[in-house]
Amino acid sequence: MTFAKAYRLRYTRYADDISFSSYAPPLALFNAGLPIPGRVKPDQLSVALAAAFSSNGFEVAADKVWYAGPKTRKEVTGLVVNEFTNVRRTFIRNLRAALYKTEKLGLAAAQSDYQKKYKTQSTLEQILRGRLEWVAQVRGRSFGPYRTLAKRFNQLFPNSPIPISPTYDEVAERSVWVVEFWIDEASNGQGTAFFLESVGLVTAHHVLESLPSGATADLFRPSNGGKKFKAWPSSRKCPYRDLMILEHDVPPSEYLSLPVVTSPERPHDHIAALGFPAYAPGDQLSKRSGQIHGSVTRHAVKFVEVSAVLSDGLSGGPIVNDLHQVVGIAHKGGGSEHKQLAVDVSELLKLATE
Predict the structure, then answer these.
(1) Quick one: 39 and 179 in the same domain?
(2) 115 and 60 share one domain
(3) % helix / strand / coil in the chain, to the nearest 5?
(4) How do residues 119-155 score in pLDDT, each as one tens digit?
(5) Helix 124-139 vs helix 144-156: angle between axes, to the nearest 10 degrees?
(6) Can you tell me the distance from the alpha carbon of 236 to that of 257, in angstroms, rounded to the nearest whole number?
(7) At CA 67, angle to CA 61 and CA 73, rounded to 5?
(8) What is the tens place of the pLDDT at every residue in 283-325?
(9) Which residues constitute the domain of residue 43?
(10) Collapsing DSSP states into helix, strand and coil, what is residue 38?
(11) CA quadruple 21, 25, 29, 35: dihedral positive or negative?
(12) N or C: which end of the chain has fewer CB within 10 A?
């Protein structure tokens, strides 16, 4: 740990597996510049690093020292950790092959063959379930390959099915709604609203700011045949943040909720703006891809600047990352604006507790 801090490295450890990572070339790890990515000989390690290992009672395993450069696959304790945490493709292929063999030979024959080959008393159901749970833990139950393999597992073991979650697109389809109202020419509005885990139904304040007191707005999903529900402002609203949490009469069976982002977003991270720009009958959910440009603070309110054009109708919709976690709420944009801004989701979480 002292060595890592001294040279501005990130240090992680699982049992006797030790990893160092850095945003800059980790020159402090080696005694003669960066080696070629791949296996590294112990004598290529720097004197300071070797001393840190020995002083802490570690002995370097000569065949387990590995260097991964910026353009190579990075793997730690069996997990691929490049842009996001992943499992090896060979792990998925082997799991697929095991399911195929079970389907081909039948459960009894496949289990007998497996137990003899690996000298184990564990059942094939336990083995396959454990591997699927590992994939789910790393990539989630919405991960496409997991869903496909889990469905095959459930056909083999219908009495003890493994959970399968909706895909990201399915969650988005049921969590993002059109919200609109029409009183007269001077009092009307249309935008996007969405359900957020642990918060509820959310939109931008300016979408419903001219809704008369006591009136309700229509809430519907085009993919659900346009079946309409009612929504109205709750006491949790803030014109300065341009946020409004809504009350509604939508039954729980009719919607899903998007999760909140779990880690900080960085410039150039991929995002998508979900919603209904300039909605008209026949339109479906729009997904505008883009990237995060940076963060902006105005009047003590945090915003996220994105490259996706946030035109009329997208206001109040979610800005999600590549895991469909909400990072912001569409605020202001369009072709005439210099910046496309979304309110940082942290502002919404604050409002929800006020």
Answers:
(1) no
(2) no
(3) 30, 30, 40
(4) 999 999 999 999 999 999 988 898 899 999 999 999 9
(5) 160
(6) 19
(7) 120
(8) 999 999 999 999 999 999 999 999 999 998 999 999 999 889 9
(9) 2-83
(10) strand
(11) positive
(12) C
